[in-house]
Amino acid sequence: MSDLELMTCTRRSLRLLPAACGRLYISANGKDEPAPWEGRAACRGCAIGARNAGRPVERLAEAAGELQRICTRCHAPAPRQIQGRWCVSCYNRHLEALKGVNAKGGRPQLLDRLHRVRVAAMVDRRRVPAAGPVVDVLEAMIAAARKAKNGAAFGAAPTVAWGRGQQELCL
Ligand SMILES: [Zn+2]
């Protein structure tokens, strides 16, 4: 690809010059971090943007960036996230579940799916605290791994009961 040939950015659904892509990457990955609703927020941690900017591609940051772009519960792309976890729809269903009643006055179906899971989670070599009820273990793992800067590891939680003052490992 020549420098004057337009490329397609799948993150932002636009065509632009590689040099412009690189400039957007630098703008989005510096001290002036974009707000979630800004278009350049999609440039955070982008490996293609890093390459076009002549910056080293950080594979782990790229993976964490991809996880930050999706809803932890439904895994759909979610440019706007509530509490840094959920798309608007999942958050609204979550609120209904907490109230025990949905907008139509019925029992939220989500109540049948929410539960606590036991997963030993280490993110950046530190144990991760509880993240509340989730619909499945994947939601808990995505919620933890998307914060990783240096790596995340998961395993089965110990089957022993937790004593008072011990670090909570259950997500
Ligand atoms: Zn969602």
How would you describe this protein?
It is a single chain. With 171 residues, the protein is α+β, with helices and mostly antiparallel strands. The chain has a domain at 1-57. Helices cover 29% and strands 11% of the residues. It contains five helices and five strands, in the order E-E-H-H-H-H-E-E-H-E. It has helices spanning 18-28, 47-53, 59-68, 88-99, 137-145, and strands spanning 7-9, 14-16, 119-123, 126-127, 152-156. Strands 4-3-5 form a three-stranded antiparallel beta sheet, covered by helices on one side. A two-stranded antiparallel sheet has the order 1-2. Helix 1 (18-28) packs across helix 2 (47-53). The radius of gyration is 19 Å and the shape is globular. The model is unreliable at 162-171 (pLDDT under 50). Zinc ion (ZN) is lined by residues 71, 73-74, 76, 86-87, 89-90.
List segments where confidence is low: pLDDT < 50 over at least 5 consecutive residues. Answer: 162-171
Average predicted confidence as pLDDT: 84
Assign a percent range to the helix content: 25-40%
Q: What is Rg?
A: 19 Å
SS summary, helix count = 5
Shape: globular
| Ligand list | zinc ion
User: Which sheet architecture does the biggest sheet show?
Assistant: 3 strands, antiparallel
Strand coverage percent: 5-15%
Order of helices and strands: EEHHHHEEHE
SSE order and pairing:
Elements (H helix, E strand, L loop, with lengths): L6 E3 L4 E3 L1 H11 L18 H7 L5 H10 L19 H12 L19 E5 L2 E2 L9 H9 L6 E5 L15
Helix pairs in contact: 1-2
